[in-house]
Amino acid sequence: MQQLNRQYIAGRIQPSRGSDTQVVTSALSGRQIAEGVLGDATDAEAAVEAARLALPAWAATSLDERREYLQNLADAFAARRDDMISALIEEFGTTAATAGYIVDQSQYWFVDAQKLLTESVFTQQIGRATVRKVPLGVSVLITPWNGASWFIAMKASVALAAGCTVVIKPSERGMLQAQPVLDAIAEAGLPAGVINVVFGKGDPVGNVLTSHPDVAKVSITGSTATGKTIAHNAVDTMKRVTLELGGKSPTIILDDADLARAVPFAVGAGLFNNGQACIAGTRILVPQSREAEIKAALAEAVGALRVGDPRDPQTVIGPVLDRAQYDRIQHYIQTGIEQGGEILAGGLGHPEGLEEGNYVKPTLIATSNDRTVAQEEIFGPVLAVLTYRDEQEAIAIANDTPYGLHAYIAAGDLDRATRVAQRLQAGRIMINEVVDAPDAPFGGFKQSGLGREFGSFGIEAFLETQAVFS
Ligand code: NAD
């Protein structure tokens, strides 16, 4: 059995000092394909120490030097593209097309960050004050399993551009995907200690990193429960935190929507990445005046989705991450039924002929917003359909959730859709199409998080502001 026991600390690939293990499985077969050996508290301490020692020299690099190193990272990620894609598909089950998108964007984050490096980001004059933006310091970057390379590159690119040194802790449930990322980082050849990678669970590695006195900043993408623990850990030393957390985003289909466009939009927004996406539009709100027609069209579209081997270019929905994720999704579908929901497409169990591996039936459940399937993040291909009487009620239902990451609106009249958008509590709202916008701010209202990432908002999150009067 292949052992995944490497860490990257102080410029060296070295074996993990910990003894906790992690079973690494294939999403396609459900079988174990590797054993992960996780780091321990000493690995976490060593990584922070390496980042601390590297900080003064890295913070003093010129913008040209930083651009050059960011390009080295882009090139190293490009060289590992195929390895990253195949590991992502094997472990996570996302389709080949989505894996290609995730891995290509991972590389572009390092290119995009170079464009942010202008003098005006770091210095401006306000009256008599010279306002400087200085690197926050050692930054811990904690990432989830739904696309390791993407989250690591998105956070590391701007942290490094800001002049911070970093310790990355990828998810222990994404160890296979993170292996070629670790290789690319080592091959990029940044000065020792500027970028470190430690594998481990929240306890002990995550807790050591997020409460360490030498760490100035923690940026995490993960669940809301984990975000709360990290915020607690960080507060004693007043670390800056960026929390990108869970979501239960609404897709409002307004009564003037053209269904030929609205239905693929709603289904695509809900089931991107096999539904394992924080931004998924998992509550579809339909107007009572067109309820039967829209429900039928949604059911037909979800029922027709091709589920299967994610390497097959015809596949739209692949398997989910692991057995635990499969069981979690089944539990939610069962709960939806027990609470009176009506299954419009999909349902319990594996799709026919796909009994091996973690395949789930894409499922549509008609329910009401107070039910568990409409309130809790499932993180799989399960969509709740909710009916509203009028626009006021649509907005009220859309906002009736502890989350506020994303929202989608399908509409005929764009002005009306824009007015509705302004009343939604969500960090990003997309009207009639899913837009790829890596330079516009990304982040959540309410319990979907704290702070914003991407583009200039991303780099700002790793800078501290100082005003000098002369
Ligand atoms: P998770 O919260 O279980 O884990 C995320 C990361 O946090 C992992 O690396 C994990 O090891 C680490 N962690 C756990 N406890 C910790 C602790 N005490 N200290 C430090 N680190 C700790 O989330 P997941 O299951 O990996 O990912 C799915 C979740 O992530 C979903 O809720 C999803 O919505 C969310 N997510 C959010 C975004 C976003 O941008 N808002 C994007 C993708 C995923």
UniProtKB/TrEMBL annotation:
<feature type="active site">
    <location>
        <position position="244"/>
    </location>
</feature>
<comment type="similarity">
    <text>Belongs to the aldehyde dehydrogenase family.</text>
</comment>
<protein>
    <recommendedName>
        <fullName>aldehyde dehydrogenase (NAD(+))</fullName>
        <ecNumber>1.2.1.3</ecNumber>
    </recommendedName>
</protein>
<dbReference type="InterPro" id="IPR015590">
    <property type="entry name" value="Aldehyde_DH_dom"/>
</dbReference>
<dbReference type="InterPro" id="IPR016163">
    <property type="entry name" value="Ald_DH_C"/>
</dbReference>
<dbReference type="GO" id="GO:0004029">
    <property type="term" value="F:aldehyde dehydrogenase (NAD+) activity"/>
</dbReference>
<feature type="domain" description="Aldehyde dehydrogenase">
    <location>
        <begin position="20"/>
        <end position="468"/>
    </location>
</feature>
<dbReference type="InterPro" id="IPR016162">
    <property type="entry name" value="Ald_DH_N"/>
</dbReference>
<dbReference type="InterPro" id="IPR016160">
    <property type="entry name" value="Ald_DH_CS_CYS"/>
</dbReference>
<dbReference type="InterPro" id="IPR016161">
    <property type="entry name" value="Ald_DH/histidinol_DH"/>
</dbReference>
<keyword id="KW-0560">Oxidoreductase</keyword>
<dbReference type="InterPro" id="IPR029510">
    <property type="entry name" value="Ald_DH_CS_GLU"/>
</dbReference>
<dbReference type="Pfam" id="PF00171">
    <property type="entry name" value="Aldedh"/>
</dbReference>
